[in-house]
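Below is how a single chain appears once it has passed through the pipeline. First comes the sequence as given, then the structure the pipeline wrote out for it. We keep one example in the README because the format questions we get most often are answered faster by looking than by reading.
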Amino acid sequence: MFQPNIVPGLLQTAEYARHAIALSTTSQDIGTAVAARMARQAILYERSKSFTFLITEGALRWRIVPTDVHVGQLNHVASLATLANVVVGIIPWRAQVAAHQSNMFCLFDDGFAFVETITGEITMEHRPDIEQYGAAFVALSGAAVTGEDAIAELQRIASEIQQLA
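Resulting structure:
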C-alpha cells in the first residue's frame, strides 16, 4: 500500500481512526466504522500474510488529531513496524522520489489494484494498469527507509509533533 496523505487504516489507532473517519463521512455511526476498522487489523497478526506500507512523511505529519493522539499514532506505527510480516517504509521529505503519485493505492497478490480517490474507489484488474501501479510502487520504495531507520524517522517526527503542544 502507498499512502501519501494519511496513516493507512490498517495501522491506525482507534482514536486516530475516529477523527479520520469523521473527516470523510457525514454518517452518525462513526463508532461502528471505527470498530470495523479495528477488527480488520487482526489480519496484521497472521504470520501467513505479509504487508508492505509506504507512507510519506507528509501523511505522518498531517495534523487531523490532537497532539497526544498524533504522537500515540506515530508510536503505534513504530510498534507495528517491528512485526516480522509487516514492512513500514517512510518516504522522508528529504528523499528524492522517482515517481509522482498523488492517490493512495494498494496492490494485491491475486492480481488487482485498488485506488482511492476523493470521490470514490476504483478496483483495477487490467494487467497493464496493475503493472503501472507496480512500477510506481517500486520507484516509491526506492525513496523509502525501512526497519530501524523507519522507526527512527517515526520517533523523530513524533518528537517534533510533541514540541508543537
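Residues 2-8+48-162 form one domain.

See the next section for the split statistics.
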